[in-house]
Design a protein that fits this description.
7-stranded parallel sheet; binds glutamine
């Protein structure tokens, strides 16, 4: 195909309508029709990236292979498309301004006054087109964060307006996602907020080509006619997006509504063939028809907000489908671990995952939980901080190293079994300076992880500053905790496990960032399987 086509996804009426899922679903359908598609997210906040944001602000920080700390929507893109994203797929206002200001300091603007229009808008346009110009994609979908009418979105909307004009008809279109609320007192769906939001978009010089309407009830024909007429879109371009029981249903719902067809038509691309969704639909079949149901505890300190552990939750869905089992994730606040919770709650679970995290809050609860699952043979997966806590627990309670700790929590610990990485010691800036992105890891042949991955060399994504302290390795291994994965170049320990336990694995990396519908992560698949075995053993009398 000659030139890349662009699709801009804007949002109106309210935030949290699921632009990311709509964008990912459309991308899935286009990909399933043979178009190489990628998605980009533009975020209007001033942080250079979400790496410095607390998960309570915007949920999980997702990490790409090339070490970008990004919005969690990129996780949906990768999970749906099974294609890697990169630094270029997430751009924030902070990043745009940083780059324009650096250019100004280098004198690149040759004495001009630097302004929002054209300098900021030019930078935005350039960032949007980087993916298109790479030649790797037929279609680039760019999701504009925020809601139209927000002050902070204005430069993005203006950049989109200019690009639509520059690229011309059939090369770039706008999909506007809005809410059609249901007023229960009147018993009616209301179109007015959508009309207003389309009008706001028009005031910025942009006409929506397609309307996707989030709704709790089916849109009647009359209502669709009304929306088409008042919002200036073709009748077939009014797409209903009704609440779904799982986000993985949305691509098929959009297919039924014809979102991909009308999109291709507007882009003057062939749309006759049907999308090839066999594998996707097999996954949904397995996901919806589990043979067993298990309960896994997720111990973390951000459990009040589900988005904080998005990729972990989705990985359980993929691994559950693979094992034909429904995984119920039970949230356990690491600050609220008591002996009662251990005996009445954790004892009854089929597996425990101790989550990643930063700082001291809740770590003693994590350590106590790990001791309990270690002593009671409950399958365990520790991720990043969870792995570090497993090392601390083992050092304290098996080796007897009293007050062993990570120097992140206690600078004066007599036994710093987890310590700041050497290359981190001189770092003063917090943004983008962790050990990030994909790193190689070699696995010991006689280990759980080697059996799980089925290969010796793997690559996984990281996001941390602290590491297993190799000074304690001999002692820890002699006592029974084995380091079974390490970085081939530096010897950094990446995996620990307990051969004497039915299934106890801690990983310094984040397997959850690489689990997709097409490729459920082997470590989650194996952990769910171990939990299922634990469940079956516990219930062997009743299951027989
Ligand atoms: N706080 C720990 C570190 O920086 C763990 C980080 C994490 O769990 N992502 O090493």
């Amino acid at each position: 195909m000659a030139d890349t086509k662009y699709i801009f996804v804007t949002g109106g009426v309210s935030s949290s309508l699921g632009k990311g899922i709509i964008a990912a679903s459309l991308a899935k359908l286009l990909q399933a029709r043979g178009y190489k598609t990628t998605i980009q997210k533009l975020d209007p906040y001033i942080n250079v990236d979400p790496g410095t944001l607390n998960p309570y602000e915007h949920g999980e920080c997702y990490v790409t292979d090339d070490g970008a700390e990004t919005d969690l929507d990129l996780g949906h893109y990768e999970r749906f498309l099974n294609v890697n994203t990169s630094q270029a797929n997430n751009v924030t206002t902070g990043r745009i301004y940083q780059s324009v200001i650096e250019k100004e300091r280098r004198g690149e603007f040759l004495g001009k006054t630097v302004q929002v229009v054209p300098h900021i808008t030019n930078e935005i346009k350039e960032r949007i087109q980087i993916l298109g110009k790479s030649g790797e994609f037929d279609i680039v979908i760019t999701e504009i964060g925020g809601t139209v009418g927000d002050i902070e979105s204005l430069p993005y909307i203006e950049a989109v307006r200019q690009l639509l004009w520059e690229l011309g008809d059939n090369n770039a279109i706008v999909i506007h996602l809005t809410l059609v609320p249901y007023l229960s007192a009147a018993g009616e769906l209301k179109t007015k907020p959508t009309q207003h939001s389309v009008k706001t978009l028009m005031e910025s010089g942009i006409k929506a080509d397609i309307l996707v309407c989030r709704t709790e009830h089916d849109l009647s024909d009359d209502l669709r006619d009304k929306l088409a007429l008042f919002c200036n879109v073709k009748r077939e371009a009014v797409i209903q997006s009704i609440d779904a029981s799982t986000i993985y249903d949305v691509p098929n719902m959009m297919l039924e509504e014809g979102l991909d067809r009308v999109t291709l038509q507007k882009l003057a691309l062939p749309n006759e063939t049907e999308p090839e969704l066999t594998n996707w639909n097999q996954f949904i079949q397995r996901h919806k028809n589990p043979k067993h149901e298990i309960h896994i505890g997720l111990v973390g300190k951000y459990v009040e907000l589900q988005d904080s552990y998005k990729s972990i939750l989705e990985s359980f869905i993929h691994a559950g489908a693979e094992n034909e089992v429904k995984v119920n994730v039970e949230y356990i606040h690491s600050e609220h671990i008591t002996e009662k919770i251990l005996k009445e709650k954790i004892a009854g679970l089929d597996g425990i995952l101790v989550a990643p995290g930063f700082g001291e809050r809740g770590i003693e609860g994590k350590i106590r939980t790990i001791q309990y699952v270690r002593e009671n043979n409950i399958p365990f997966l520790g991720i990043c901080l969870g792995m570090q806590m497993a090392v601390i627990e083992f050092s304290r309670n098996v080796l007897g190293l009293q007050n062993a700790n990570s120097t992140e929590m206690d600078d004066n610990t007599p036994y710093p079994v987890i310590d700041l990485m050497e290359e981190q010691k001189d770092i003063t800036h917090m943004g983008g300076t962790m050990r990030l992105g994909a790193w190689k890891c070699s696995l010991e042949e006689n280990s759980i992880v080697y059996r799980v991955y089925g290969e010796k060399e793997i690559s996984e994504r990281h996001r941390h500053r602290y590491e297993f302290n190799n000074k304690f390795k001999e002692e820890i291994e002699a006592a029974g905790m084995k380091a079974t994965g390490y970085n081939p170049d530096t010897g950094l320990v990446e995996v620990v496990e307990l051969p004497e336990h039915p299934w106890f694995v801690g990983v310094q990396y984040h397997p959850e960032y690489k689990s997709t519908v097409a490729n459920p992560h082997p470590l989650f698949v194996a952990f769910v399987k171990a939990a299922l075995n634990h469940y079956k053993e516990k219930n062997s009398a009743t299951l027989a």
